[in-house]
Design the sequence.
């Protein structure tokens, strides 16, 4: 296995800047996810690590050694792609063992490695090994592709480009669990690209959010969710993203309007002078909103427009003036709620964030 270091990676397609002076360090044995919106440069960066794209400036290091000019085959990497790229005329066992057969492994050693790998990827019933790719489910095709990648002796790095995208939700969840266990067991340095923020949170030891060719935050999954540094990161993670309410900071209060009443939200921290009396964006996650069906102090009124149930919780889509606010709670706590009803929302400052609406950066 190997650590990975990227230094000042810059990539253009024609006149379009795709990667903007990217630098990154990934520890040996770490499961590192690169996530972000579509078109942000994730797959391009993975191809550079893999040696499949050489038209860029900057340096790539494995274990401190400069491999920038090495071909993909010289980097000793294992890769799994979204389309799996299985040989259609080879049965599963032949696809898995192909990297060893072209290296002319002895039949005994090849059989031993195949048996070990099949157990690791948990392909299931023995008969699947004699199936062609077209006879396998998407989940089993993914496991065959993963097996083909890991059967090699100690690749430096394991690279995966959205390998679960084509799977349905339940198979995706099960395969994700299998993949995480597998990578943990073999202690492989893994770089995993996905546009699915929840998948990144579930799999990664550490992750980076890439947007328009730049990393906007590199952090642990816990901190990425609970301590976002920008509005983009705050909104990107979570099933529903973050609610944003626009207002101004006046003294110790954040004042926003519901078109009828100014609602003060008392702030505990010292607010920077440059923020005072200026437009500010308050962010709070749907599950952190306190609500009731009767008026309370420091609450504001909203109307329930839609209720989406995903047991054991549900999401109430509410309107306060012209603002849409998502409120998530356990179904049992909103049993009396119906579309058209009024609820009263109260915001807890300890669970809220203030952002600069122009830069998107966190203020406090």
Sequence:
């Amino acid at each position: 296995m190997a650590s990975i270091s990227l230094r000042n990676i810059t990539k253009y397609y024609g006149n379009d800047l795709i990667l903007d002076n990217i630098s990154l360090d990934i520890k040996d044995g770490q499961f590192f996810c690169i996530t972000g919106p579509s078109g942000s440069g994730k797959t391009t960066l993975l191809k550079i690590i893999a040696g499949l794209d050489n038209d860029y400036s900057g340096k790539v290091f494995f274990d401190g050694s400069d491999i920038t000019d090495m071909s993909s085959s010289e980097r000793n990497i294992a890769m799994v792609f979204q389309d799996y790229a299985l040989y259609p005329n080879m049965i599963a066992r032949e696809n898995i063992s192909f990297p060893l057969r072209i290296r002319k492994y002895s039949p005994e050693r090849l059989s031993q490695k195949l048996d070990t790998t099949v157990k690791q990827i948990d392909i299931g019933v023995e008969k699947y090994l004699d199936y062609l790719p077209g006879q396998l489910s998407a989940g089993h095709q993914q496991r065959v592709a993963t097996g083909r990648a890991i059967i090699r002796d100690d690749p430096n790095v394991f690279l995966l480009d959205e390998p679960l995208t084509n799977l349905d939700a339940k198979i995706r969840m099960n395969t994700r669990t299998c993949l995480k266990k597998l990578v943990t067991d073999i202690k492989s340095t893994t770089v995993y690209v996905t546009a699915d923020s929840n998948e990144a949170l579930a799999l990664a030891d550490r992750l980076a959010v890439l947007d328009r060719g730049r990393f906007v935050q590199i952090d642990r999954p816990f901190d990425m969710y609970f301590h976002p540094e920008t509005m983009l990161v705050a909104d990107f993670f979570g099933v529903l993203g973050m609610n944003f309410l626009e207002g101004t900071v006046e003294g110790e209060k954040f004042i926003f309007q519901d078109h009828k009443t100014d609602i003060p939200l008392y702030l505990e921290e010292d607010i920077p002078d440059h923020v005072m009396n200026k437009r500010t964006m308050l962010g709070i996650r749907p599950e952190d909103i306190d609500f009731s069906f009767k008026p309370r102090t420091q609450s504001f009124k909203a109307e329930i427009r839609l209720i989406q149930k995903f047991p054991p919780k549900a999401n109430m889509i509410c309107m306060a003036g012209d603002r849409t606010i998502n409120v998530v709670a356990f179904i049992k706590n909103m049993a009396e709620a119906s579309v058209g009803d009024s609820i009263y929302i109260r915001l807890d400052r300890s669970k809220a964030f203030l952002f600069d609406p122009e830069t998107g950066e966190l203020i406090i």
Remarks:
- The chain has a mean pLDDT of 88.
- The two ends are 40 Å apart (CA to CA).
- The chain has two domains: 4-236, 243-355.
